[in-house]
Amino acid sequence: ATYYLTFTGVPGTATYYALIMTVYTWIAKGAWFALGYPYDFIVTPVWLPSAMLLDLVYWAT
Known about the structure:
Blueprint: H1 2-8, H2 13-34, H3 47-60
Helix pairs in contact: 2-3
């Protein structure tokens, strides 16, 4: 996905959705902390690297 993004300027579908999920996760994390819950590890955004890996595999085939 990284190479694809670099050479075309257009991210893969999985990476695009992962970016949205990551943003929503950050928003959820902000709300979570605002409510006083310190469980940072629960809302760690892991969407992006996993989806970029999926994109890389997809475009390599």
